[in-house]
Every structure is written in C-alpha cells, then in structure tokens.
Amino acid sequence: xxxxxxxxxxxxxxxxxxxxxxxxxxxxxxxxxxxxxxxxxxxxxxxxxxxxxxxxxxxxxxxxxxxxxxxxxxxxxxxxxxxxxxxxxxxxxxxxxxxxxxxxxxxxxxxxxxxxxxxxxxxxxxxxxxxxxxxxxxxxxxxxxxxxxxxxxxxxxxxxxxxxxxxxxxxxxxxxxxxxxxxxxxxxxxxxx
Length: 193
Hints:
This protein has 193 residues and is an alpha+beta fold. The protein has 2 helices and 11 strands; from the N terminus they run H-E-E-E-E-E-E-E-E-E-E-E-H. Strands 1, 2, 4, 5, 6, 8, 10 and 11 form an 8-stranded antiparallel beta sheet that branches. Strands 3-9-7 form a 3-stranded antiparallel beta sheet, with no helix packed on it. It is globular. Mean pLDDT is 84; it is low at 1-27.
C-alpha cells in the first residue's frame, strides 16, 4: 500500500470514529423511557433529610445550581450517596478534573406539558456508580458526594437544565439560558404519593 493510500485510510478511520463519538450521547436517547413520574431531592431522598442547600441557585456570584451539604458541616458528607432526582437515561459519567471533578448527567423525559426534557447534572462526585446509556429510576444511587479531588470541602453541586446537551458550563453566570432553579423545580414536580 502506498504511503498516500495509508494516510487516506487512517484519515477516514479517524473521521469515522470522531463522528461516532460526537453522536454517541444522542444514541442513548433513542429508546427513551416514558415519563419521569416526579422528582425527589438527590441527597437524603426524598426530602433532603440531613442536608441543607448551602449555596442556592442564583445566589452568590449567580450560582447556576444548588450546593448540597450534610448538616454536620465540613467533610462529614464525603462519600454519602447521591441519587437520581427522577427516572431517566445517563448521558455522561466522566472525570472533568479541575473545579468539576467527576460529573454524571441524566436526561429525564417528563412529557408533563411544562418541560418535556430535563437534564440533571451532579458534580464533584467521589464515586460514579453508573455508565452512559444506563437507565435509572428515581432514588437510584448514581454516585457519592465528593470534593472535586480536594478542590473544595465535600458537597454535591446539582444543576437542572431545560434541555439535554448544553455545554458543561461555568457553574456561575448571569443571563445564561437553559438553567432551572433545582429546588424550585423539584418542589413543583414532586411524585404523586
């Protein structure tokens, strides 16, 4: 095989793999589960018992999520379970390093007329217990509270977005579209008991 043909074959292979990698997350969503049947809090489920929202959505420096801490403070919640807020499909479970650490993203298909598709993002995890493509149910353990590899005291950073696939984002910002107030949304979308 000539060098020119070899280079062409390698280029085509790399392009094909790149296209597959870019399309992979959406392939998880083809066989979407029907309905999320309500939302619970991701720690101390269903009502966040034993936890408090240390940095609410929109607070200091325009926080784009909620930071959940154990009521004992410090790193007392390191390793505590984090559960999926609703039924859905895991689209990402990856270590982003830096200030994000380990991140799990889940898409929920609600079809309740207000938000057909909601994405939950769980950051700074110590452990991740799910894989991309995995279906989860409300209250299923998806990981544990971490500290982003020592960047912070242990806590869970939770974001809710009004559609799947938004960029990871900065964690803080003003006027960014797509972000929902997690606590308000969960309270408005509790399961029928």
